[in-house]
């Protein structure tokens, strides 16, 4: 019997890899192993529609249902955690002790929520009202606590923290966001975008505090956290009372399995090339667990997004099937907060100019990021047509005059043609 192609990690990257492998080469069986107890599901709704709707069911979250995997000839095993890769023997070992031979191996182990490194954090993480938001289990635990009038403290003003803040406001909670950096979204957007999002949240009723370091927690007698202790930039100290605390402080790539198997990893992911090959060219990796080259930028980057997981998965499957389909796509991502549909493309780091086109007050604009006159990234708020154009321009490395870009009297298409 042919040994299966084994994929470790059953989520966006793993399920796409499995489907593509079966499409490209149905002669080899595929085994998809995931440690979560459910079939692969979509994570984005966990901080958006699904979390915001107390009655939303799980089935619509599934990327494919059981029948679709069966029809595609993919064996999926939820609840199967892989504890070791034996490259020399061509086998993986499950936590249960079971050993499985593979013909080829793909790693799609993703990322996990970063833990708070604070005094009292370990005790706080045991508290019934302290949460993170990475998995369906996390969202299922948090959702029933999002009751009207409850006070929620969100630690971290990144996308997930802000999406949670927006839906909590909509559900009538009292929201405080504590962000350690001087502005929200500082890692990924320009200062103008941060100021825009801070204003939108404050106008909606959220108490957004920046430059505030969380220092610890106050506990109630039943073990719940009752308050979050913080220090502000001016050296002032305070405590914000809370019925719910959610830490949205980023993620850590799950690289330990690859590392233990001797594959090259950086501090931020399994190193892969544009064909998704790891340092062992017979093993591929895709998605949030990887650090990959990005066209137009030097070095490797870990891209946390569904489109990236899907694109890398398709490339990785092609590589295993002996085809050459390099991962050259420009990263893109989206975030939904209130009535704002934000779509981002490219990596803005290293930009030397930002041109804002449109009307921030009317919640419809695009921020274009330029380096040396070339568009390297864009954040479009409620501007889907400009986002589509920006995707093409970033991929093509289009050169434009930032003043003309910001001038609404200049038609965008004409600008670039010129
Ligand atoms: C709340 C939330 C909202 C998001 N919103 C957006 C959005 O709006 N747009 C967007 O583009 N992206 C969004 N993302 C990011 C996106 O979900 C990730 O980029 C995507 O899930 C990455 O897919 P992945 O398959 O690489 O990794 P993951 O989704 O992390 O999946 C990896 C899987 O592997 C499993 N695993 C790990 N180790 C093992 C092991 N040893 N054995 C077996 N299984 C293992 C993990 O448990 C997990 O199930 C969001 C993420 C979250 C959490």
Set out the fold topology:
Elements: E1 5-8, H1 12-24, E2 30-33, H2 49-52, H3 66-72, E3 74-77, E4 82-86, E5 91-94, E6 99-101, E7 104-107, E8 111-113, H4 121-126, E9 130-131, H5 136-142, E10 151-155, H6 159-170, E11 174-179, H7 191-204, E12 207-210, E13 213-219, E14 225-231, E15 237-241, E16 244-247, E17 251-253, H8 256-260, E18 265-266, E19 269-271, E20 283-285, E21 290-293, E22 300-301, H9 306-320, E23 332-337, E24 340-346, E25 353-359, E26 364-371, E27 374-381, H10 384-396, H11 402-406, H12 412-417
Parallel strand pairs: 1-2, 1-7, 2-3, 7-20, 9-16, 10-11, 10-16, 11-12, 19-21
Antiparallel strand pairs: 4-5, 5-6, 8-17, 13-14, 14-15, 18-19, 21-22, 23-24, 24-27, 25-26, 26-27
Helix pairs in contact: 1-9
Bound molecules: flavin-adenine dinucleotide.
The site of flavin-adenine dinucleotide has 36 residues, from helix 1, helix 9 and strand 23.
């Amino acid at each position: 019997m042919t040994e299966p192609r084994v994929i470790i990690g059953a989520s966006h990257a793993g399920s796409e890899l499995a489907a593509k492998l079966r499409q490209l080469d149905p002669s080899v069986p595929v085994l998809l192993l995931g440690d979560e107890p459910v079939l692969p599901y979509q994570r984005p709704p966990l901080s958006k529609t699904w979390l915001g709707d107390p009655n939303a069911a799980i089935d619509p979250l599934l990327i494919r249902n059981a029948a679709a995997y069966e029809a595609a000839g993919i064996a999926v095993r939820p609840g199967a955690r892989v504890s070791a890769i034996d490259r020399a023997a061509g086998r993986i070992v499950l936590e249960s002790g079971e050993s499985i031979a593979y013909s080829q191996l793909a790693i799609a182990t993703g990322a996990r929520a970063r833990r708070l490194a604070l005094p009292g954090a370990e005790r706080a993480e045991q508290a019934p009202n302290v949460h993170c938001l990475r998995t369906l289990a996390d969202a299922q635990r948090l959702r029933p606590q999002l009751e009207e009038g409850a006070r929620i403290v969100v630690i971290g003003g990144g996308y997930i923290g802000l999406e949670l803040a927006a839906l909590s406001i909509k559900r009538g909670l009292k929201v405080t966001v504590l962000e350690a950096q001087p502005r929200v979204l500082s890692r990924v957007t320009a200062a103008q975008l941060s100021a825009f999002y801070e204003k939108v949240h404050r106008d909606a009723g959220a108490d957004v505090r920046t430059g505030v370091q969380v220092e610890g927690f106050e506990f109630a007698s039943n073990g719940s956290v009752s308050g979050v202790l913080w220090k502000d930039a001016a050296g002032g100290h305070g405590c914000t009372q809370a019925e719910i605390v959610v830490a949205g402080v980023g993620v850590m790539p799950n690289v330990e399995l690859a590392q233990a198997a001797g594959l090259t990893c950086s501090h931020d992911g399994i190193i892969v090339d544009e064909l998704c090959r790891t340092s062992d060219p017979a093993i591929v990796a895709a998605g949030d667990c990887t650090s990959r080259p990005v066209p137009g930028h030097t070095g490797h980057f870990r891209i946390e997004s569904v489109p990236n997981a899907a694109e890398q998965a398709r490339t990785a499957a092609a590589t295993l099937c002996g085809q050459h389909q390099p991962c050259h796509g420009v990263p893109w991502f989206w975030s939904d907060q209130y009535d704002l549909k934000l779509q981002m493309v490219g990596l803005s780091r290293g930009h030397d100019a930002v041109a804002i086109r449109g009307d921030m007050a009317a919640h419809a604009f695009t921020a274009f990021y330029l380096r040396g006159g070339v568009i390297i990234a864009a954040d479009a708020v409620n501007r889907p047509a400009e986002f589509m154009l920006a995707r093409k321009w970033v991929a093509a490395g289009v050169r434009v005059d930032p003043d003309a870009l910001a001038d609404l009297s200049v038609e965008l298409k004409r600008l670039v043609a010129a």
